[in-house]
Amino acid sequence: MDFGLSEEQVLLKDTIRRYLETECPPTRVRAIMENPSGHDPDLWHGLAQLGVPGLRIPVEHGGSGLELLDAALAAEELGSACTPGPFLACALASEALIAAGNREAAARWLPAIAQGTSIVTLALGEDGDQWDAAQLATRVRGGALIGRKPLVAYGEIADAILVAAQDDDGPGLWLVERGAPGLAVTTQRTTDMTRRVAAVTLEGAPGARIATGRAAIDRARDAGLVLLAADAYGGARRCLEMTVRYVLTREQFGQPIGGFQGVKHQLADLATELDPALSLWWYAAHAHDRIRDRSARHAAIAKAHLTDLFDRVARVTTELHGGIGFTWEYDLHLWFRRSVFDRSFLGEAGYHRARAAELAGW
Amino acid sequence: MNLSYSAEYEQFRAEVRRFLAEHWTGEDAAATISDPTTVAALGGAVRTDARATAFRLKAIERGYLYRHVPRRYGGSEQPPDPLKATIIGEEFRNAKAPGEVVGQGASMLVPTLLEHGTEAQKERFIHGTLLGKIRWCQGYSEPGAGSDLASLKTRAVLDGDHWVVNGQKIWTSNAKDAEWMFALVRTEPDQPRHDGISYLLIEMTTPGLDVRPLRQMTGDADFNEVFFDNARVPVENLVGRRGQGWVVSRSTLKHERALIGGSHLTRRAFDGLVMLAQALDVRGQPAIKDPVIRDRLVELEARLLANEYQGYRLLTMSARGEEPGLAGMVMKLSSTSLGYDIAKLAMDVMGDRGLLAPGEASAPAMGMFGTAYMWSLGVLIAGGAANIQRNIIAERGLGLPRDARK
Q1: In chain A, what are the domains?
Q2: pLDDT digits over B35-54, tens only?
Q3: DSSP A324-355
Q4: d(CA B295, CA B82)
Q5: Do B153 and B242 sit in the same domain of this protein?
Q6: Domain that holds residue B178
Q7: Could you tell me if B360 and B268 lie in one domain?
Q8: Rounded average pLDDT over B209-223
Q9: B226-265 pLDDT, tens digit each
Q10: Which ipTM score applies to this complex?
Q11: Which of A164, A176, A182, B57 is most buried as measured by Cβ atoms within 10 A of its Cβ?
C-alpha cells in the first residue's frame, strides 16, 4: 500500500521543473505565444531530450514505456510553467497509436514522436461540442475522408493527423499525412495562446485505417482528460503560489494585504479545495493503467473537477491581485487563459459529469 | 504507487479477520444499532456492555486496540504502524465489532495523561477510560471564550488541599452521562491569558457542580451548560504544573493514526444521498434522472473521492515518516464543508417534502436528512469554527501573517 510517488517519479518531476525554470520562464512563454505557430522547435527538442514526449511510448519504439501517471506528472510541471507547445497533441496521438495496435503505423510514427522529430495529433471533436466517438459525422468512403474538425490541437504543424471518423462499420481511426490532397488546415486564434488549435477540413483526403472500433479513440480521450486535469492542477498551484508571494509584499493601509482576513480566507479556501484534488488526478492516472474498470469514470470526474477548480483559482487569484492582475504586463493572465483551454478542450466539465453519472448507471 | 497491500500485511489482515470471526460472532455481529446516521457508522464502537468489554480485552491482548498505550495502563503497546492500524480499523468496521471506545476520554484525555499525568493519575484513569468504564466530558468552551479559548474565566483558587472552582462551561457534550470532566480553569489571575490556565480533572458528582441541558436548533439537547459554585477539587487532580494547562491540553496522539476511513461517515452520507435520489420521484421520474441533480451529485462525488484518496496519501506520508503539512491541515474544513453540501443537496432532492419535520411519518427517510442538514452546521462550528480553520491554513499552511490579536 503506497499512494505516493517513487524516487524516480520525484526525480522526473524535479528534472522537468528545473529545465522549465531556466528554459521556459514567462518571457519565453510570451515570445512563443507571439509567434504564428505557438510552437518553439528548440524548446520541444529540449523536452524531447529529457524524454517528455516519449514517456508513454513503449521502449521498442524509442520511448520510456512508463505509465500515464508519469506523463501526468510531466503535464503538471508543463501546466505549472504554462509551457507552450504540442505536448497534449502528441500525447493524444501516441496514446491512440499504442491502443490501436497497428504495428506498421506505430513503428513509423512513435519513434519520431519520442525523439521530437515529428508532431502527430488527434482530430476528434466536431461541430456542436461533439466529443463522442459514436456520434461523429466525419465519414470515410473508399479510403477517402469527408468532414470537418474545428478544434485540432496543433493541426497546423502536425506531420500527421489521426482522424476519428466513421465508415459503414462504425467508428475508427484513419491517419492523414500533412499535405494530403483534400486536407485543409486553417489557423485560428485561441484564448489560451500557449496551446493552439486549427480547423481541419477533409474533402476526400486519403487516410490509412489504423484502428477499427472506438476503443483506441476512447483510450486516447481518457488519457487526455487525465493529462488536462494534471495540467490544470499544475497551473492552479502556480497561481496560488504567485498570489501568496504577492500578498506578502503588496502593502495597503500600512500592512501587507496578506494580513487581512478577507484575503487570507479566500486563499485558505482555494488551498483547501486544491490540495486534496491532487489525490484525485493521481488516482485517475493510476487507474488508467492499473484499475481499468474504473479508469473511464475517474478520468471524466478528474477532468471536470480539476479544470473547474483551475478556473476558480485563476479567477480568484487574479481578483486578489487587484489592478495589476488585470494588466497584460503581469503574467497571471497567461494561466487564466490556460485554464480556458483545459476546461473546454475534449468537452467541458458539465459534459463529463453527465458522462460520469451515466457510467455509474444512475 | 501501489494500492495493494504486501503479503506481510495481507497476512496480518487475514489474522485480524480470523480473530473477528472467532470472537465477534452471531448475535453480536447482527445486533448493531439500526439508526442510519452516525451511530450505525460507528458500529460496535459505541457499545460498552459486558460482551463488548470482554471482546475489547481480547482485542487488546492480541495487540489490535490502543496500540500506542503501554500494557501497564491497559493498552497493547505495539510499535507504530499506520498500515496495520488502518487494516484493523477497516476490518473492525466491516465486522461491526467494538473498536477503540469513541469519545473525548480515549481520544483526548488518555494521550494527555500519558504525556503529562502522574503515575497515580495514569493508573487510576487510563484503563477504565479505554474500556468505556470511565466516561469523560470536556470542559473547555465558556460563554465568553469560544474561538478565543485563552480568554476563559472559570477560576480555581487553592484552599488547603483543594482547588475551589467557580464559573461556567458551555457546549459540554455528554456532561449528563460522564463521570468525569477534564477542564481548563484559570488558576493564576495575575498571568496573561495562556499562562494563567491549569488542567484539572473534576468528578461530575462534586457538590456545587450543576449540569443543565442546552437545547440546540435541531430541538434535541445534545449539549449542556455546566455551572461551578465553590466546587472543591482535590489538588492531586491537577494534570501537569500550575499555569501549564494550555500546553498540557495540546497533547495529541503522536504515535500512529489510522488515516484511511477518516471520511467513511461522509461516504455513508453520500451513498445515502444517491439512494434517496434513486428512490424519490420528482415530477414523474426518479430525482436522479434530473440533469441538475446528476451534475451536482458528481461534483460532490469528486470532492468525496479526493478526500478518500487524500486519506491514502496521508497514510503513505505517515508510513514514510514524512510531515503532512498543508495536506493534514485542510482535511477538517474540506470534509465538514462537503458534509454540509451533501446535506444541502439531499434537501433539494426531497423538493417540497423537505419541509416535513424529522420523525414525521410521511417525510422521506423519516426526515433523517432534515436532521442531518441542521447537524451539518453544528459540525462546521464544533471543534474549531470554519473561520478559525481558515486562519490556521492561511497562517501555518500558506505562511501568511498572523491575525492582529490583543
Answers
A1: 7-115 (1.10.540.10), 120-212 (2.40.110.10), 216-359 (1.20.140.10)
A2: 333 333 344 456 778 888 99
A3: GGGSSSSTHHHHHHHHHHHHHTTS-HHHHHHH
A4: 36
A5: yes
A6: 136-249
A7: yes
A8: 92
A9: 999 999 999 999 999 999 999 998 875 444 444 444 678 8
A10: 0.97
A11: A164
Contact at CB, A276 and B303, closer than 8 angstroms:
yes
Read off the CATH number of the domain in which B56 is found: 1.10.540
Pairing of strands A120-123, A160-167: parallel
Angle between helices A215-249 and A68-80 (to 10 degrees): 40
Q: Which chain B residues are within 8 Å of A265, Cβ to Cβ?
A: 387, 390-391, 394
* pLDDT band at residue B28 using 50, 70 and 90 as cut-offs: low
Cβ contacts of residue B306 below 8 Å, gap of 6+? A276, A277, A279, A280, A305
B271 shares a domain with B370: yes
Average pLDDT over chain A reads 97
Which chain B positions have a beta carbon within 8 Å of A242's beta carbon?
Answer: none
pLDDT tens figures, A232-261: 999 999 999 999 999 999 999 999 999 999
Cell of A70: 508519469
More confident residue, B328 or A134: A134
Q: Write down which residue in B190, B217, B249 finishes a domain.
A: B249
* Chain A hits for B84, Cβ within 8 Å: none
User: What is the domain count for chain B?
Assistant: 3
Q: What is the dihedral of CA B129, B132, B135, B140, to 10 degrees?
A: 60
Q: Are residues B284 and B221 in the same domain?
A: no
User: Beta-carbon neighbour count of residue B283 at 10 Å?
Assistant: 7
Domain end call among B200, B226, B249 = B249
Is B256 an active-site residue? yes
